UniProtKB/TrEMBL annotation:
Pfam families: Cob_adeno_trans (PF01923). GO terms for biological process: cobalamin biosynthetic process. Belongs to the Cob(I)alamin adenosyltransferase family. Its EC number is 2.5.1.-. InterPro entries: CblAdoTrfase-like (IPR016030), CblAdoTrfase-like_sf (IPR036451), PduO-typ (IPR029499). Keywords: ATP-binding, Cobalamin biosynthesis, Nucleotide-binding, Transferase. This is Cobalamin adenosyltransferase. GO terms for molecular function: ATP binding; corrinoid adenosyltransferase activity.
């Protein structure tokens, strides 16, 4: 593969537009660019999570996911192009089932807290939900703008990140966790302890 980025500062976006992968230019506030930006932010959040101590299987999975998110971004950057494969959604389903099977059943809502790695997984989960909303908005605004796989992928990924946050709390690799952090609401009859 040749060198694709020969010049980083092109100044072509100074007018408030940006180029898509097919060469067309759109405003920087276009729904496609919003979706691209949210997917990029999600991938960056996973990069921060990968800087933490993680179980080997979780690390390997997150690296694969980063590559798949890059494919998803590539697909979003070229209207009509297909890069994210249906197998990627299946892989998330399988990982979700595998990791969830080892966890105790939830009886209460949990807070996005615990170990640093679990908290970072929750941040990535919330960014994944935003990216999903952006992709859904793009699909609603432009007929045929997005295939089903990108929407499905982001939906499954946010679920998987929730489960991985629970896994990471139990892994307790920083010594600050060990379990889920449960929501306590006086209104719901769960006083704070």
């Amino acid at each position: 593969m040749g060198h694709r980025l020969t010049q980083i500062a092109t100044r072509t976006g100074d007018d408030g537009s940006t180029g898509l992968g097919d060469g067309t230019r759109v405003p920087k506030d276009h729904l496609r660019i919003q979706a691209l930006g949210d997917v990029d932010e999600l991938n960056s959040q996973l990069g921060v999570l990968l800087a933490e101590p993680l179980p080997d299987d979780v690390r390997e999975l997150l690296v694969v996911i980063q590559h798949e998110l890059f494919n998803l971004g590539g697909e979003l950057s070229i209207p009509g192009y297909e890069l994210l494969k249906a197998e990627a959604v299946l892989r998330l389903d399988e990982a979700l089932a595998h990791h969830n099977a080892a966890l105790p059943r939830l009886k209460e809502f949990i807070l996005p807290a615990g170990t640093r790695s679990a908290a970072l997984a929750h941040v990535a989960r919330s960014v994944a939900r935003r990216a999903e909303r952006a992709v859904v908005a793009l699909a609603g605004a432009e007929a045929g703008a997005v295939r089903a796989e990108p929407r499905q992928y982001l939906n499954r990924l946010s679920d998987l990140l929730f489960v991985l946050a629970r896994v990471l709390n139990r892994a307790n690799l920083d010594g600050l966790g060990g379990d889920d952090v449960y929501w306590r609401s006086e209104r719901m009859g769960h006083p704070a302890s």
